[in-house]
């Protein structure tokens, strides 16, 4: 099989695929975001939540339901910020997987990826990683 990638490109393709797989698995796991609320451990995933608050109308208080369950709909995700984060992160995982699979195909098909396209794709991945890593630092 002929390759359109250099040795560096092949290493980049395999690392991109491993990173894409790890990101997608991490995103779709049920314990994507962990935290605490009302002194209870809570978690939020794309399709699931564990230990979530519910309004008890009979007692006029908020109680914690300490079980895991799936969201009935997209609107059931508790806040607009979580819905936005779910969509943006899901799109990012999809794009990362697309770039990684294209790079892997470049290992097997000649003239699929040019040197310029490879450099641009690598640069975009580098900048995306720097941007996403810099957001959570609080600095």
TrEMBL record:
GO cellular component, one term: membrane
Keyword Transmembrane: yes
Metal-binding is among the record's keywords: no
Major localization class: membrane
Domain of life: Eukaryota
UniProt keywords, alphabetically: Membrane, Signal, Transmembrane, Transmembrane helix
Gene3D superfamilies, per the entry: 1.20.140.150
Transmembrane spans: 12-34, 84-105
Signal peptide coordinates: 1-21
Compartment(s): Membrane
Topological relation to the membrane, as annotated: Multi-pass membrane protein
PANTHER family associated with the record: LHFPL TETRASPAN SUBFAMILY MEMBER 6 PROTEIN, LIPOMA HMGIC FUSION PARTNER-LIKE PROTEIN
Protein name (Swiss-Prot/TrEMBL): LHPL6 protein
Species of provenance: Rhynochetos jubatus (kagu)
């Amino acid at each position: 099989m002929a390759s359109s990638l250099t040795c560096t490109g092949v290493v980049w393709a395999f690392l991109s695929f491993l990173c894409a797989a790890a990101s997608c698995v991490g995103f779709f796991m049920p314990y994507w975001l962990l935290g605490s609320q009302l002194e209870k451990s809570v978690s939020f995933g794309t399709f699931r939540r564990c230990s979530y608050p519910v309004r008890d109308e009979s007692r006029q208080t908020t109680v914690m339901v300490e079980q895991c369950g799936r969201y009935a709909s997209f609107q059931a995700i508790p806040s607009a910020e979580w819905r936005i984060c779910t969509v943006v992160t899901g799109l990012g995982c999809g794009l990362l997987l697309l770039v990684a699979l294209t790079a892997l195909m470049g290992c097997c098909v000649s003239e699929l990826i040019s040197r310029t396209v490879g450099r641009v794709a690598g640069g975009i991945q580098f900048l995306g990683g720097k941007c996403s890593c810099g957001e959570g630092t609080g600095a």
